[in-house]
From TrEMBL:
This is Uncharacterized protein. It comes from the Bacteria.
Amino acid sequence: MENQENSQSIKEFLCWRENLYHGVNARKETVIELVDALSSNSIASSVVELSEHPLFRRDYNSLYKGIQEFLPDKNDDNYSQQVIQLRMSNMKKIGLN
């Protein structure tokens, strides 16, 4: 039973991760690597420490830019709609729809 629950959790995480990848406007791979580093690290206390995590294969500058550019461009005419879409997608995935 525990294996089935783990398998389902992994499937849900991968689905969420894919939705995140498609919902991010820029630096998709950087954001995904940041999620990987965050989800497997319980001791990093700074962005610099996260940039040194083995699952984050880029440099600090990439990490910083990935965080800065995480949301869609605020100057984009569809900015509000894109943010709402991201929020709704994530809320649905965690059962808050």
